[in-house]
């Protein structure tokens, strides 16, 4: 890219690096809370007005009540015996990030698919901002196409780019 560049990392530029340990404590406690399937007292970790911003299929939630009612409860109804496993975590001042997987049993309806009883993997990435000991923002990517594939649904209808990886399809030439 030649010429002027777009501003980069504006949200994390002025993070207070002295807050790293506090951020770590909040995130570690929150993950333990999610693994304990806590809903009613999840406010121990999230500010009352936090924003949960998910990818398509997940939606966005404003505040604890929407997060509880429109994410936690439906998720726990669809996926039983769930365990969250962060494979990596990064901490920088008021910011934290993680990626990993949840292992769960498909025990309730999910996106119109009746329970299969299958044990599945739900991959995710999370970015959090912590202020005054509470999560105020949470950006989330949950790999729902991977979940659906494990339940027998190909959301890409055979057109996923994995075909480029295994040589069954050739990528188009760039312009």
Give me the secondary-structure category. Answer: alpha+beta
| Radius of gyration computed on alpha carbons | 19 Å
What count of domains describes the coordinates? 1
What is the average of the pLDDT values? Answer: 93
- Helices, by number, come to 4
- The amount of helix comes to 10-25%
| Record field, number of beta strands | 6
Q: Characterize the overall form.
A: globular
Say what the CATH topology is.
Nuclear Transport Factor 2, Chain: A
CATH architecture: Roll
For the largest beta-sheet, the strand count, sense and barrel status come to: 6 strands, mixed
Which blocks of ≥5 consecutive residues have pLDDT under 50?
Answer: none
Secondary-structure element order, N to C: HEEHEEEEHH
The CATH class turns out to be: Alpha Beta
How far apart lie the N and C ends? 16 Å
Order of strands, main sheet, comes to 2-1-6-5-4-3
Q: Approximately how much beta-strand content do the residues carry?
A: 25-35%
Notes on the structure:
The protein is globular and about 50 Å long. The protein has 175 residues and is an alpha+beta fold. The longest helix has 16 residues, at 20-35. Strands 2-1-6-5-4-3 form a six-stranded mixed beta sheet. It has four helices and six strands. Strand 5 and strand 6 form a beta hairpin. It has a single domain, classed as Nuclear Transport Factor 2, Chain: A (Roll), CATH 3.10.450.50.
């Amino acid at each position: 890219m030649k010429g002027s560049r777009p501003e980069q990392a504006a949200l994390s530029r002025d993070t207070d690096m002295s807050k790293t340990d506090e951020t770590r404590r909040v995130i570690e406690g929150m993950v333990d809370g999610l693994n304990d399937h806590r809903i009613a007292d999840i406010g121990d970790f999230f500010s009352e007005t936090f924003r949960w911003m998910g990818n398509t299929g997940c939606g966005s939630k404003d505040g604890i009540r929407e997060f509880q009612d429109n994410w936690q409860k439906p998720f726990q109804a669809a996926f039983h015996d769930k365990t969250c496993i962060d494979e990596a975590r990064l901490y920088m001042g008021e910011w934290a990030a993680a990626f990993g997987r949840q292992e769960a049993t498909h025990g309730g309806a999910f996106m119109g698919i009746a329970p299969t009883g299958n044990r599945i993997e739900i991959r995710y990435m999370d970015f959090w901002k912590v202020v005054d000991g509470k999560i105020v923002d949470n950006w989330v990517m949950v790999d729902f196409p991977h979940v659906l594939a494990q339940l027998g649904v190909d959301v890409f209808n055979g057109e996923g780019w994995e075909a480029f990886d295994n040589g069954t399809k050739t990528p188009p030439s760039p312009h």
